[in-house]
Design a protein that fits this description.
heterodimer, A: alpha+beta, four-stranded antiparallel sheet, three-stranded antiparallel sheet, flat, B: 204 residues, alpha/beta, Rossmann fold, five-stranded parallel sheet, 6 helices, 26% strand, globular
Chain lengths: 564, 204
């Protein structure tokens, strides 16, 4: 480091102090507001708190990195710093550490201010302090990674506007591709239920998913620590990779690029492809959805037109010349080749994916999810060791771990028939998502379509949903007793047809009694008996101040409905 | 000695310098001349270690210049538009350079300022642009480096100002043996003080 490197050190100190003040105001202001009022953060404030902290951290990272590395976009200042007898690596380290110190100063001061003013008002709590430290560590890595990406974007560009645009694209690039694949693929849009816990890759997903259980004071510390450890490893990888990228790009960045838009001439095509390919695929997909009759032709035409227009627009921005943009046939052709290659790969993978049916001998067991009943899959609860409810269980995770269906023949027959007929041609199609557990290899999930007007199909489906195995995998209340220490505030009967609530009672005993009747009624549940009709009413068992509940369906043929 | 061998530089697909070779002798004033767009400024920035050539080598005292602190310490570069924070005075800027160059002589800078009636205690932004350039030249000379590479700060100056710059350069050469490499659109503005002239031709 060479701290005497800055000719404008006075201005840098003043601006840095302003950043520190902004960080302290944002972080400790928000922490003090919630923690001192409630002594710990209630769960309903957590989402907005996480979004605010993540947003503020992102803005600080982009602003601080922009300020410290903005000299790269000024020819005068680049010449000045590059002519000084300081090596490029020392220069990079000095600027980088400068950014880091500004943020670290703000963060440490925020924690000090929060503790100084928060502890006398709300008291000291070791658990809360541990959560604060974990959240701070995660936020530091989140900040550093965004800062690295911003520095990388600034090194890649020769102009601050282009730098910020590249920064935005890079920050959300993985999310963008996830969205493209979601939109394009049937396997992603229709059979994604069991994939909801796919590993988080994007920086924002990693941070947001982990910070939520970490700052929630009603989640046990063990759960928070486990979320923290998993996330911090991912954030560390993000940090190291982005640090190496921005460092390498800084050292290779030519000084003369301060006057151009893109610092590396060789990057023009790469940047174009990075933007044109996902945009064209997305546009193609939107056209596909809008023009059913000619959807395939319209999708291809739309991708071609988008590729040409966006390529030319980017070329016009790079070259400052409409004429050059109109002549940029080479990059348009390369873009089209990459777009259609990506399109072909995605379509081929999707086709192969959707045609999969496991062999009978390979299938150990399976679970199913019926999208039409999706609402009722989402009310299973997480209890801590004291019987205290602290969250809902992810629906897919619950089904995966609790529904063990053994009738392989029924599901394989339905899956094979699903391959034979397009669901558009079925008179009464019912989608069913299946999670196959295999004797060899990882489980696989697929969507199948069942024609419910076919009696054989109906019989097979009844064999799947009729036994208790299925019901245990959907409703926690089917075979899970209310914990002794659970705080059951209210048990209600909700008549959906009249939209009338009836309070049945409260406490564990009432809940157990009504559950017993419901379980007996559900013995006859299948598509020929109870399930042939829509849900008529619901039983709601409210826990812990009404924040969480079990919701159990009541059908017309059930005694609970007849006697209500 | 500063030696260039087959130095080539492109900006995107424009060739700014094509296989330029030269040797700039020590203890002399060398001028790089050429028409507008011939690559004078680019060559100054390459010699000063700011810009890396695409091909060819630049060595200063038998060592590469680019990203080499040892040679950069022997070189003071004045690009076409020298940067200085607008609120800083020449005295403050001299303090900054004194931390960068061990050889920097603050007293000499003040002496030069007095000799050429340049203010050292007012913000640089308040100085007239060419006086500011003259001040930067005084700072560059005070850095005490072996080489001073300078873009064309002089052609647009008034005769009086240019005469002061010329005198400052000649005095530095005589007193300290500083080697000057100066880019000039027109060598006549410096007259007979130039020892060697290197002409660049625009290559397109």
């Amino acid at each position: 480091m060479n701290w005497k490197l800055f000719a404008d050190s006075k201005r840098r100190i003043i601006v840095s102090l302003l950043f520190v003040a902004a960080i302290v105001a944002a972080y400790s202001g928000r922490l003090l507001l919630s923690d001192t009022r409630h002594r710990g953060m209630p769960f309903y404030e957590v989402p907005s708190f996480c979004v605010m902290i993540a947003g503020a951290t992102g803005v600080f990272a982009v602003c601080i990195a922009s300020y410290w590395f903005a000299y790269l976009h000024s020819e005068k200042r680049t010449d000045f710093y590059h002519s000084l007898p300081v090596s490029a690596i020392v220069r990079f380290r000095t600027f980088y550490t400068g950014c880091l110190l500004v943020y670290a100063g703000g963060l440490v001061l925020s924690i000090i201010v929060s503790l100084t003013f928060g502890v006398p008002l709300a008291g000291f709590d070791a658990g809360l302090f541990a959560r604060l430290c974990m959240a701070a560590a995660m936020t530091v890595f989140f900040f550093l990674t965004i800062m690295n990406i911003t520095i990388y974007a600034f090194c890649l560009s020769g102009n601050i506007i282009i730098g910020l645009l590249i920064d935005a694209v890079l920050l959300f690039y993985i999310d963008l591709w996830e969205r493209v694949i979601d939109l394009m693929c049937d396997f992603a849009t229709h059979s994604s239920f069991f994939e909801t816990k796919s590993p988080s890759i994007s920086l924002i997903d990693v941070y947001m998913e982990a910070i939520y259980p970490i700052v929630r004071s009603d989640v046990s510390l063990g759960v928070s620590v486990s979320a923290f450890v998993s996330a911090i490893v991912k954030l560390l990888i993000w940090f190291v990779v982005t640090y190496l990228m921005c460092r390498s790009r800084y050292l290779k960045r030519p000084a003369e690029s301060a006057r151009s838009l893109i610092a590396f001439y060789s990057s023009h095509l790469l940047i174009k492809l990075m933007i044109v390919v996902p945009v064209a695929l997305m546009m193609g997909n939107s056209t596909y959805d809008s023009f059913y009759a000619y959807r395939n032709v319209m999708q291809i035409v739309s991708m071609i037109v988008t590729a040409i227009v966006v390529s030319m627009l980017l070329e016009a921005v790079f070259s400052h010349s409409i004429r050059t943009a109109l002549k940029s046939r080479g990059s348009i052709i390369v873009s089209l080749i990459v777009i259609f290659a990506a399109f072909g790969v995605i379509r081929a993978v999707e086709k192969k994916y959707n045609s999969y049916v496991p062999k009978y001998d390979d299938l150990e067991s399976y679970a199913v999810f019926c999208p039409l009943d999706s609402y009722y899959y989402g009310f299973n609860l997480k209890y801590d060791e004291d019987g205290h409810v602290y969250d809902y269980i992810d629906a897919a995770e619950y089904v995966k771990s609790h529904m063990i269906l053994p009738d392989e023949k029924a599901i394989l027959t339905l899956a094979a028939k699903s391959q034979q007929t397009d669901y558009h041609e079925m008179s009464s199609p019912l989608p069913l998502q299946v999670y196959y557990r295999l004797s060899k290899g990882a489980p696989r999930s697929r969507l199948i379509w069942i024609d419910m007007d076919d009696d054989e199909n109906r019989g097979m489906l009844n064999r799947i949903v009729g036994p208790a195995y299925y019901k245990s995998g959907v409703w926690q209340g089917f075979d899970y007793d209310v914990p002794d220490d659970a705080d059951v505030n209210s048990v209600d009967f909700h008549d959906l047809r009249a939209d009338v609530y009836t309070h049945i009672g409260q406490g564990q005993g009432t809940a157990e009694q009504i559950l017993e009747v419901w379980r007996q009624d559900m013995v006859r549940y299948d598509y020929d008996h109870i399930r042939y009709d829509e849900v008529a009413a619901e039983i709601e068992v409210h826990f812990d101040g009404g924040l969480y509940m079990w919701v159990l369906p009541v059908y017309e043929d059930m005694s609970l409905w007849e006697n209500h | 000695m500063i030696e260039l061998s087959n130095v080539t530089k492109h900006f995107d697909n424009i060739c700014a310098l094509n296989r330029v070779s030269a040797s700039f002798k020590e203890g002399a004033i060398s001028a790089i001349t050429g028409t507008s767009g011939s690559g004078k400024s680019t060559l100054v920035r390459i010699i000063g270690g700011i810009v890396r050539p695409d091909a060819g080598v630049v060595v200063v005292d038998d060592m590469p210049i680019f990203d080499n602190v040892v040679t950069l310490k022997r070189m003071f570069v004045l690009p076409e538009k020298p940067y200085c924070p607008s609120y800083e005075s020449a005295a403050e800027l001299a303090d900054f350079y004194a931390h960068m160059y061990e050889t920097f002589d603050v007293e000499r800078m003040h002496e030069l300022a007095i000799a050429y009636s340049l203010p050292t205690d007012v913000p640089m932004r308040r100085m007239e642009p060419y006086a500011r350039n003259l001040m930067m030249l005084a700072i560059g000379i005070s850095a005490g480096t072996k080489y001073l590479v300078c873009d064309d700060l002089f052609t647009a100056m008034s005769d009086e100002m240019r005469s002061s710059a010329r005198k400052m350069i000649v005095d530095a050469l005589d007193s300290f043996g500083t080697t000057f490499v100066i880019a000039l659109a027109d060598t006549s503005v410096f007259g007979e003080v130039i020892d060697y002239t290197y002409e660049l031709e625009a290559f397109r």
